[in-house]
Amino acid sequence: MDSKIITKLVEIIGEKYVSTRPDVLLAYSSSASTGYDSIKPDAVVRPGNTEEISRILKIANEYKIPVIARSGGSSLQGEVIPKEGSLVVELMRLADVTLYEDLRSVKVGAGVTFGMLDKFLNKHDLWLPVYPESSLVCTIAGNVAVNGAGPGSSTEGCIAELVLGLEVVLPDGTVIQTGTEASPHVPGPFLRYAFGPDITGLFIGSLGSLGIITNVSVKVTKRMRQFHYETYGFETAEQAEKFLISLKQNDINAVFASIYEGRILNFFMDMLGEEYEIPEHDWPDFTVSITIGRMREDQLTSDVALAAKLCESHGGHVIGIRQLPQGEWDDRMRTFARSSYAHGWHWRILYHHQTPSNWHASVKVIWEVMDEYGLLGHTAGFQTGHSSYNFYPHLYFDPTDKEEEEKVKEAHVELSKRLFKTGAVPFKLAPYWVEGVEEMKDYLNFIKAIKQTLDPNGIMNPGVLGGL
Ligand SMILES: Cc1cc2nc3c(=O)[nH]c(=O)nc-3n(C[C@H](O)[C@H](O)[C@H](O)COP(=O)(O)OP(=O)(O)OC[C@H]3O[C@@H](n4cnc5c(N)ncnc54)[C@H](O)[C@@H]3O)c2cc1C
Q1: Which atom of ligand 1 is nearest to 113's Cα?
Q2: Top-level CATH class of 97-222?
Q3: 168 - beta bridge partners?
Q4: CATH number for the segment(s) 3-92
C-alpha cells in the first residue's frame, strides 16, 4: 500500500492504531476458518469510533482499496480472511454498552463480544437469549453480519430476530442509523420496523460487503434460571422429527434442541464423551437432545412432563442422560460438533437451513456425498426458530494431504447443489452456493445491483457475498 495512504490513515487514528508490521499482518491473515488459505493484508487499522471509520472508508474509496471489516475473527467460511492488497479494519475498540432497561434493549459497539455482554447483562438479571458457541470471541456485530444462530435459537430464531437497529458506515463513508433510533427524539431502540422498508435487514447476513456495522441495538429479556436437560430415543427419523415439531406445537420452551443419529453420537462420544462425563450408553438410531428453559419452576415442571408424554406418543422413550444437553448448553466453546479441533483436522462447513420434517433429507444427502468422495465428516445442527433446522455439517480433511483437501472442496460444491434440491436454503450466502446452484442466478443479480449501488468501487470485502 502506498506510503501516502498510510500517512493519511495515521492522520485519522494515530500511529498506534495503524500497522504494516509483518508479524501484525500475519496475525490478521487467518481466522478460525481452518479450511482456507491465509492471505496477509497490506495494513491493519484499529479505529476507536464511527467518525474514524467513516473517514477511513472515504480514503479506501478514493484509492479503491479492498476493505475487510473484522471483529472476533471466529467465522468459519473464510469470510474474514483478507484479500491481496487489502486494508483490515479491526473493530474491537468499539466496546460501548448502553442498557435501556425500560425498553428491554441494549446498544453495543461492534467490538462487544457475546461473552462481554453476557457478563454485563447478568448483573441486571437480563440476557441476550441467543448465544453462539463461539461467544467468548465472537461479537454481536460479527454475528449480525453473518446472521448467526446458536443455543437459544431453538426458540428465538437466528440473531436477526433480535436486532432492533444498526448504525452502519456505508462504503462511501456516509453514516446511517436504522430502526427507531433514526429519530433523535426517541428514548432508545424499541422497534426495528420503523421508517418504512426494513433497511436493517439489508445488512444482516451481508458479510461486511455493504458497509461496516458500528453499533447494534438488540432485544434483551429477563434471564432464565430454570432449566431441564433431557435426551429422548427414537427408532426412526420421522418419529424424532415429529417429536421436535410437536414440542413447538405444544409451546414447550426447548431453547436448544438437536436430533443426533446414533452413529454420529457414537463418533462424538468416542472423542469427547469422557471429558463431558457422559455415561456409556447403547444410543438408539435417533436421539433428540434438548434443553428446556423457563422463567418459572411451575412452567418448567409442566413442560418436562408434557415433553415425556409427547415423546411416548411418537413411539419414543426418555433416555434420561442429561449430561449431553447440559454439556451443549453450559459449555458452548467446545461442543461435540467441534470435536475436530481435538484431532487437528481441518474442515469445510456447509451452513444451511432445512425444515424439521425434512431433517432426514439433509442427513441422507450429506452421507451420500461423504461416501461418494470417501470423506470423514459429521451431520450436526439444531432447531432454529419457528419452523427451521440449522445444519452445519463438516467435511474433514488432513491439512497435509492436498489431494484430500481438493476432494473436500469439490464435495462441498456438490453438496450445496444436492442440498438445494432437497429444499434446503443457504444460511450464509457463501460463494460455493453460487458455484453449485444455477437457480439462484436471478436472486444474485438483484443482490449485485444493490451492491453496485452502495459500493460502486467494489471495495467492501469483494467476492464474499455469493462471489460478488
Ligand atoms: C468454536 C466455534 C463455534 C462457533 N459456533 C457458532 C455458533 O454457534 N453460531 C454461529 O452463528 N456461528 C458460530 N461460529 C462461527 C462464528 O463465530 C460466527 O460466524 C461469528 O458470528 C463471527 O463473528 P466475529 O465477530 O468473529 O466476526 P468475524 O469472523 O470477524 O467476521 C465475520 C464476517 O462478518 C464481517 N464483519 C465482522 N464484523 C463486522 C462489522 N462490524 N460490520 C460489517 N461486517 C462485519 C466480516 O467481514 C466477515 O465477513 C463458531 C465458530 C467457532 C470457531
Answers
A1: 25
A2: alpha beta
A3: 176, 213
A4: 3.30.43.10
